[in-house]
């Protein structure tokens, strides 16, 4: 008998999404991640759940439609970490005529049914906003709606639900190699805690993101027939450039677009770049050229709005991050035009053409369509588990993610209720917990929380303990940058205090 039905390699959004769906269908699942959950591409996105307006220019209507449908599903499943966001598109006449934009936005509004989000419209900036931050040459534009998401927390919530459904989620556990023995795989794993371990599984899902081809070539000694194209996307975080809760989508002469997004109350998130990448995905960094590129294009649109009165420059960057997108190589010349759709490759025979234990590999994809991708992956795997009565029954379309079971998805009402329930909590802190944990915040808080120890700005010991016990947090980086975004305001001494707390807590 096999130790597990399914071994999933990779703790990003696709791996955890498949683990959740598979565990909910009754499969015995093991997911291994060599680092922390969402430690690579899945925490380095632009934080958007969107249809991909610009993909309409490449006539990728099916991808846009799929993504728009998923946008509604995810907004309903996780209203605590996903919320509607208005986008403002300033009109640049020499780049795209108004009629083209109107047609594109009409399609965007109607390629799927909108139950929650508003429709697009034309606006005049002076009439719309007297505090308009754009340069005077921009007189009008368009608005439309998409969604913002906490990408890293989305991954953690899928992993949390998978574990609740019976999956074994192991972080800091590396997949070493596997041998196909006909009706099962024999896989070798390694972790600092457990050392080397050999397990048997009926099927393997390779959701290793930028390392998917490495797993096939090196870990499984197989040819990777589907080629991967690595593209680096970088973002910068700067002091808030403008008031209001809207985001801006900016068109550039090189065909790319850049987003400027409200971020963590006091900041603006700017991105992204699209640069071909050939190095080690674990060592990706933003370049000076990319920072200059992003600042330059922001300055082409926005007035100097920071306190010093000068255009945005590298010296204004508070933080930055870069990630490697593992896109399916469709032979497109420009990196920005490479498809964001996914390809699922299933190998179920050996080199001699005989039936063998299945290997399912994921190439490409985007965070918005991860749930749909997981459904498609389970469709392909269903034939190998005929004894399981639930294997062909999709279930995640209407299932909330952990903490997302908020009545009517009304976060304002939910926060008001929680502020009355926990009157001793600072109101901003209470609202922050509501948006991070949703209904799960009740699992973290009790009356003893009133006497909690403050580890660092806005982080009390009960929250840190909750993140360690319930969300696989091990390091200060896990807590400050992926489970929360508190790292933006913390000093080196604050980080050192958290590291001391973790050292003491994890060795108990």
């Amino acid at each position: 008998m096999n130790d597990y039905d399914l071994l999933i390699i990779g703790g990003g959004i696709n791996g955890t999404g498949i683990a959740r769906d598979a565990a909910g269908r009754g499969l015995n699942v093991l997911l291994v991640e060599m680092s922390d959950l969402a430690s690579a591409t899945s925490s380095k996105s632009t934080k958007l759940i969107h249809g991909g307006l610009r993909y309409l220019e490449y006539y990728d209507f099916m991808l846009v439609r799929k993504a728009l449908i998923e946008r509604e599903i995810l907004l309903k499943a996780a209203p605590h970490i996903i919320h509607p966001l208005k986008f403002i598109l300033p009109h640049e006449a020499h780049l795209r005529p108004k009629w083209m934009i109107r047609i594109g936005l009409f399609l965007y509004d109607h390629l799927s049914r909108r139950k929650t989000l508003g429709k697009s419209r034309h606006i005049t900036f002076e009439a719309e906003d007297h505090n308009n931050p754009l340069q005077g040459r921009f007189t009008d534009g368009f608005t439309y709606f998409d969604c913002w998401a906490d990408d890293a927390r989305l991954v953690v919530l899928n992993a949390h639900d998978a574990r609740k459904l019976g999956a074994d989620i192991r972080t800091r556990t590396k997949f070493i190699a596997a041998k196909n023995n006909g009706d099962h795989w024999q896989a070798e794993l390694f972790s600092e805690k457990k050392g080397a371990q050999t397990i048997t599984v009926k099927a393997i899902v390779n959701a290793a993101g930028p390392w998917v081809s490495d797993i096939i070539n090196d870990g499984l000694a197989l040819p990777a027939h589907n080629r991967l194209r690595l593209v680096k996307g970088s973002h910068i975080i700067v002091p808030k450039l403008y008031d209001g809760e809207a985001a801006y989508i900016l068109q550039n002469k090189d065909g790319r677009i850049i987003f400027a997004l409200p971020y963590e109350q006091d900041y603006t998130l700017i991105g992204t770049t699209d640069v071909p990448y050939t190095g080690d995905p674990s060592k990706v960094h933003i370049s000076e050229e990319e920072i200059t590129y992003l600042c330059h294009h922001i300055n082409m649109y926005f007035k100097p709005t920071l306190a010093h009165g000068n255009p945005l420059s590298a010296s204004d960057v508070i933080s930055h991050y870069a990630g490697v997108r593992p896109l399916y190589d469709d032979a497109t010349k420009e990196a920005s035009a490479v498809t964001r759709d996914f390809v699922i490759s299933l190998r179920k025979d050996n080199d001699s053409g005989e039936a063998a234990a299945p290997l399912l590999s994921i190439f490409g994809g985007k965070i918005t369509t991860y749930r749909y991708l997981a459904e498609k992956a389970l469709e392909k795997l269903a034939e190998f588990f005929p004894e399981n009565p639930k294997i062909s029954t999709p279930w995640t379309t209407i299932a909330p993610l952990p903490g997302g079971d908020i009545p009517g998805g009304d976060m304002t009402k939910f926060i008001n209720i929680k502020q009355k329930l926990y009157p001793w909590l600072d109101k901003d802190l209470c609202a922050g917990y509501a948006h991070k944990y949703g209904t799960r915040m009740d699992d973290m808080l009790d009356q003893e929380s009133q006497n909690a120890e403050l580890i660092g700005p806005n982080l009390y010991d009960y929250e840190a303990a909750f993140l360690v016990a319930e969300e696989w947090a091990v390091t200060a980086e896990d807590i400050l940058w992926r489970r929360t975004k508190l790292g933006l305001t913390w000093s080196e001494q604050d980080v050192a205090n958290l590291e001391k707390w973790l050292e003491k807590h994890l060795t108990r």
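The CA atoms of residues 7 and 154 lie 21 Å apart. The chain has a mean pLDDT of 93.
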